[in-house]
Design brief:
alpha/beta, Rossmann fold, 2 domains, seven-stranded mixed beta sheet, 7 strands, binds S-adenosylmethionine
Amino acid sequence: MRPIQLTPRLRSVAEQVPTGAKFADIGTDHAYLPAWLLQRGIITKALACDLRKGPLDRARATAEKYNLTQQMDFRLCDGLAGVAPGEADTIAIAGMGGETIADILAAAPWVWRADCLLLLQPMSAQPELRRWLQAHGYTIARELLSREGDTLYTTFVVQPGPMGELTPAEAWAGRQRKGEEAPLREEYLNRLVAQTARAAEGLARSTRPEDGPRRAEMEQVHTGLLELREEWLSWQR
Ligand SMILES: C[S@@+](CC[C@H](N)C(=O)[O-])C[C@H]1O[C@@H](n2cnc3c(N)ncnc32)[C@H](O)[C@@H]1O
Protein backbone atom coordinates (compact mmCIF):
# COMPACT_ATOMS: atom_id res chain seq x y z
CA MET A 1 0.00 0.00 0.00
CA ARG A 2 1.27 3.45 -0.94
CA PRO A 3 2.34 5.48 2.11
CA ILE A 4 0.14 8.44 2.96
CA GLN A 5 1.88 11.77 2.47
CA LEU A 6 1.04 14.70 4.69
CA THR A 7 1.44 18.33 3.69
CA PRO A 8 3.77 20.42 5.90
CA ARG A 9 0.86 21.79 7.97
CA LEU A 10 -0.38 18.39 9.18
CA ARG A 11 3.12 16.96 9.22
CA SER A 12 4.12 19.52 11.86
CA VAL A 13 1.34 18.14 14.08
CA ALA A 14 2.03 14.46 13.30
CA GLU A 15 5.71 14.72 14.16
CA GLN A 16 4.89 15.74 17.72
CA VAL A 17 2.88 12.59 18.52
CA PRO A 18 4.92 10.34 20.84
CA THR A 19 5.36 6.67 19.96
CA GLY A 20 2.68 4.55 21.61
CA ALA A 21 0.38 7.51 22.28
CA LYS A 22 -3.34 7.00 22.93
CA PHE A 23 -4.23 9.41 20.16
CA ALA A 24 -7.46 11.29 19.44
CA ASP A 25 -7.91 13.54 16.42
CA ILE A 26 -10.72 16.02 17.00
CA GLY A 27 -12.21 17.44 13.79
CA THR A 28 -10.51 14.67 11.87
CA ASP A 29 -12.27 15.14 8.51
CA HIS A 30 -10.31 12.80 6.16
CA ALA A 31 -8.45 11.21 9.09
CA TYR A 32 -5.15 11.76 7.33
CA LEU A 33 -3.40 12.44 10.62
CA PRO A 34 -4.36 9.17 12.39
CA ALA A 35 -3.88 7.21 9.16
CA TRP A 36 -0.32 8.54 8.72
CA LEU A 37 0.54 7.72 12.35
CA LEU A 38 -0.98 4.22 12.16
CA GLN A 39 0.68 3.43 8.85
CA ARG A 40 4.08 4.23 10.31
CA GLY A 41 3.44 2.24 13.50
CA ILE A 42 3.85 5.34 15.69
CA ILE A 43 0.48 4.51 17.25
CA THR A 44 -1.52 1.29 17.19
CA LYS A 45 -5.04 2.69 17.72
CA ALA A 46 -6.68 6.06 17.14
CA LEU A 47 -9.90 7.87 17.86
CA ALA A 48 -11.11 9.79 14.81
CA CYS A 49 -13.76 12.30 15.92
CA ASP A 50 -15.83 14.82 14.02
CA LEU A 51 -18.93 16.90 14.60
CA ARG A 52 -20.41 16.08 11.21
CA LYS A 53 -21.30 12.89 9.38
CA GLY A 54 -19.83 13.88 6.02
CA PRO A 55 -16.29 14.35 7.35
CA LEU A 56 -16.57 11.19 9.46
CA ASP A 57 -17.61 9.24 6.35
CA ARG A 58 -14.49 10.59 4.65
CA ALA A 59 -12.45 9.41 7.65
CA ARG A 60 -13.95 5.92 7.28
CA ALA A 61 -13.16 5.96 3.56
CA THR A 62 -9.50 6.80 4.26
CA ALA A 63 -9.31 4.02 6.85
CA GLU A 64 -10.80 1.52 4.37
CA LYS A 65 -8.51 2.62 1.56
CA TYR A 66 -5.42 2.07 3.70
CA ASN A 67 -6.74 -1.01 5.48
CA LEU A 68 -6.72 0.69 8.89
CA THR A 69 -10.39 0.32 9.86
CA GLN A 70 -9.65 -2.11 12.70
CA GLN A 71 -7.29 0.38 14.29
CA MET A 72 -9.55 3.41 14.13
CA ASP A 73 -12.54 4.17 16.26
CA PHE A 74 -14.94 6.70 14.70
CA ARG A 75 -16.90 9.05 16.93
CA LEU A 76 -19.57 11.47 15.77
CA CYS A 77 -19.37 14.11 18.50
CA ASP A 78 -18.88 17.75 19.40
CA GLY A 79 -15.26 18.24 20.40
CA LEU A 80 -14.23 15.76 23.09
CA ALA A 81 -17.79 14.95 24.17
CA GLY A 82 -17.48 11.43 22.76
CA VAL A 83 -14.09 10.69 24.34
CA ALA A 84 -14.08 9.34 27.89
CA PRO A 85 -11.42 10.49 30.34
CA GLY A 86 -8.42 8.18 30.00
CA GLU A 87 -9.22 7.10 26.45
CA ALA A 88 -6.64 9.51 25.04
CA ASP A 89 -3.38 10.98 26.29
CA THR A 90 -2.48 12.90 23.13
CA ILE A 91 -5.07 15.06 21.41
CA ALA A 92 -4.83 16.94 18.12
CA ILE A 93 -7.27 19.74 17.29
CA ALA A 94 -6.26 21.22 13.95
CA GLY A 95 -7.92 23.24 11.24
CA MET A 96 -10.45 25.10 13.43
CA GLY A 97 -10.70 28.62 14.80
CA GLY A 98 -8.90 29.37 18.05
CA GLU A 99 -12.17 30.17 19.81
CA THR A 100 -13.69 26.82 18.82
CA ILE A 101 -10.55 25.05 20.11
CA ALA A 102 -10.87 26.92 23.43
CA ASP A 103 -14.58 25.99 23.65
CA ILE A 104 -13.74 22.32 23.05
CA LEU A 105 -11.12 22.33 25.82
CA ALA A 106 -13.37 24.29 28.20
CA ALA A 107 -16.03 21.59 27.81
CA ALA A 108 -13.54 18.80 28.68
CA PRO A 109 -11.69 19.74 31.89
CA TRP A 110 -10.57 16.10 32.32
CA VAL A 111 -7.96 16.79 29.62
CA TRP A 112 -6.13 19.07 32.06
CA ARG A 113 -6.46 16.62 34.96
CA ALA A 114 -5.24 13.70 32.84
CA ASP A 115 -2.11 15.64 31.85
CA CYS A 116 -2.79 15.18 28.14
CA LEU A 117 -0.44 16.43 25.46
CA LEU A 118 -2.34 18.82 23.18
CA LEU A 119 -1.39 19.64 19.60
CA LEU A 120 -3.43 22.66 18.60
CA GLN A 121 -3.39 24.31 15.21
CA PRO A 122 -5.69 27.35 15.23
CA MET A 123 -6.64 28.85 11.88
CA SER A 124 -7.67 32.14 13.50
CA ALA A 125 -7.87 33.92 16.89
CA GLN A 126 -4.40 32.86 17.96
CA PRO A 127 -4.05 35.65 20.57
CA GLU A 128 -7.38 34.65 22.10
CA LEU A 129 -6.36 30.97 22.27
CA ARG A 130 -2.95 31.76 23.82
CA ARG A 131 -4.65 33.91 26.46
CA TRP A 132 -7.28 31.25 27.13
CA LEU A 133 -4.62 28.56 27.59
CA GLN A 134 -2.61 30.76 29.96
CA ALA A 135 -5.70 31.63 32.01
CA HIS A 136 -6.78 27.99 32.29
CA GLY A 137 -3.53 26.51 33.58
CA TYR A 138 -2.05 25.29 30.33
CA THR A 139 1.47 26.00 29.15
CA ILE A 140 2.54 26.34 25.52
CA ALA A 141 5.81 24.42 25.57
CA ARG A 142 6.67 25.13 21.92
CA GLU A 143 5.20 26.67 18.82
CA LEU A 144 6.00 25.25 15.39
CA LEU A 145 5.59 27.16 12.17
CA SER A 146 4.94 25.53 8.83
CA ARG A 147 4.30 26.98 5.41
CA GLU A 148 1.90 25.98 2.67
CA GLY A 149 1.85 28.31 -0.29
CA ASP A 150 1.70 31.81 1.07
CA THR A 151 0.20 30.80 4.41
CA LEU A 152 2.07 30.24 7.67
CA TYR A 153 0.46 27.84 10.14
CA THR A 154 1.19 27.63 13.84
CA THR A 155 1.03 24.46 15.92
CA PHE A 156 0.96 24.90 19.68
CA VAL A 157 2.47 22.04 21.69
CA VAL A 158 0.59 22.35 24.98
CA GLN A 159 0.59 20.64 28.36
CA PRO A 160 -1.08 21.35 31.68
CA GLY A 161 1.08 23.60 33.86
CA PRO A 162 1.50 27.27 34.66
CA MET A 163 2.81 29.47 31.85
CA GLY A 164 3.05 32.90 33.51
CA GLU A 165 1.46 36.08 32.17
CA LEU A 166 1.86 36.77 28.47
CA THR A 167 2.60 40.32 27.36
CA PRO A 168 0.13 41.69 24.78
CA ALA A 169 2.72 41.09 22.04
CA GLU A 170 3.41 37.55 23.28
CA ALA A 171 -0.30 36.81 23.07
CA TRP A 172 -0.05 37.71 19.38
CA ALA A 173 3.25 36.08 18.49
CA GLY A 174 3.86 33.48 21.18
CA ARG A 175 6.75 33.47 23.63
CA GLN A 176 10.17 33.26 22.00
CA ARG A 177 13.21 31.53 23.41
CA LYS A 178 16.86 32.13 22.69
CA GLY A 179 18.45 29.28 20.78
CA GLU A 180 15.21 27.78 19.46
CA GLU A 181 15.20 26.60 15.84
CA ALA A 182 12.46 28.50 14.03
CA PRO A 183 13.44 29.40 10.47
CA LEU A 184 10.01 30.93 9.75
CA ARG A 185 9.76 33.05 12.88
CA GLU A 186 11.24 36.22 11.38
CA GLU A 187 8.67 36.12 8.57
CA TYR A 188 5.89 35.38 11.08
CA LEU A 189 6.90 38.42 13.14
CA ASN A 190 7.15 40.58 10.00
CA ARG A 191 3.61 39.62 9.04
CA LEU A 192 2.23 40.38 12.50
CA VAL A 193 4.06 43.73 12.60
CA ALA A 194 2.48 44.67 9.25
CA GLN A 195 -0.96 43.37 10.26
CA THR A 196 -1.04 45.31 13.54
CA ALA A 197 0.25 48.48 11.82
CA ARG A 198 -2.66 48.24 9.33
CA ALA A 199 -5.14 47.58 12.13
CA ALA A 200 -3.88 50.56 14.19
CA GLU A 201 -4.06 52.84 11.11
CA GLY A 202 -7.63 51.70 10.41
CA LEU A 203 -8.65 52.41 14.00
CA ALA A 204 -6.95 55.82 13.86
CA ARG A 205 -9.28 56.78 10.97
CA SER A 206 -12.37 55.66 12.86
CA THR A 207 -14.67 58.25 14.45
CA ARG A 208 -16.35 55.75 16.79
CA PRO A 209 -15.50 56.63 20.42
CA GLU A 210 -14.97 52.99 21.41
CA ASP A 211 -12.18 52.68 18.83
CA GLY A 212 -9.93 55.05 20.81
CA PRO A 213 -9.00 52.45 23.47
CA ARG A 214 -8.80 49.72 20.80
CA ARG A 215 -6.33 51.84 18.86
CA ALA A 216 -4.17 52.37 21.98
CA GLU A 217 -4.26 48.61 22.61
CA MET A 218 -3.29 47.81 19.01
CA GLU A 219 -0.45 50.32 19.10
CA GLN A 220 0.83 48.69 22.28
CA VAL A 221 0.76 45.27 20.60
CA HIS A 222 2.51 46.70 17.53
CA THR A 223 5.29 48.29 19.61
CA GLY A 224 5.73 45.05 21.55
CA LEU A 225 5.97 43.08 18.31
CA LEU A 226 8.69 45.43 17.03
CA GLU A 227 10.62 44.73 20.24
CA LEU A 228 10.12 40.98 19.92
CA ARG A 229 11.40 41.15 16.33
CA GLU A 230 14.43 43.17 17.38
CA GLU A 231 15.19 40.66 20.13
CA TRP A 232 14.75 37.72 17.76
CA LEU A 233 17.03 39.27 15.13
CA SER A 234 19.69 40.06 17.76
CA TRP A 235 19.70 36.34 18.72
CA GLN A 236 20.28 35.34 15.10
CA ARG A 237 23.40 37.53 14.64
C1 LIG B 1 -11.02 22.29 8.16
S1 LIG B 1 -11.39 20.71 8.78
C2 LIG B 1 -9.81 20.25 9.44
C3 LIG B 1 -9.50 18.80 9.23
C4 LIG B 1 -8.17 18.35 9.80
N1 LIG B 1 -8.18 18.39 11.25
C5 LIG B 1 -7.06 19.21 9.27
O1 LIG B 1 -6.50 20.00 10.03
O2 LIG B 1 -6.76 19.11 8.08
C6 LIG B 1 -12.30 21.05 10.24
C7 LIG B 1 -13.08 19.85 10.73
O3 LIG B 1 -13.46 20.09 12.07
C8 LIG B 1 -14.78 19.64 12.25
N2 LIG B 1 -15.31 20.36 13.42
C9 LIG B 1 -15.66 21.66 13.51
N3 LIG B 1 -16.10 21.95 14.75
C10 LIG B 1 -16.00 20.79 15.45
C11 LIG B 1 -16.32 20.43 16.79
N4 LIG B 1 -16.82 21.30 17.66
N5 LIG B 1 -16.09 19.16 17.18
C12 LIG B 1 -15.59 18.24 16.31
N6 LIG B 1 -15.30 18.53 15.03
C13 LIG B 1 -15.50 19.78 14.61
C14 LIG B 1 -15.46 19.94 10.94
O4 LIG B 1 -16.62 19.15 10.77
C15 LIG B 1 -14.35 19.61 9.94
O5 LIG B 1 -14.40 18.27 9.53
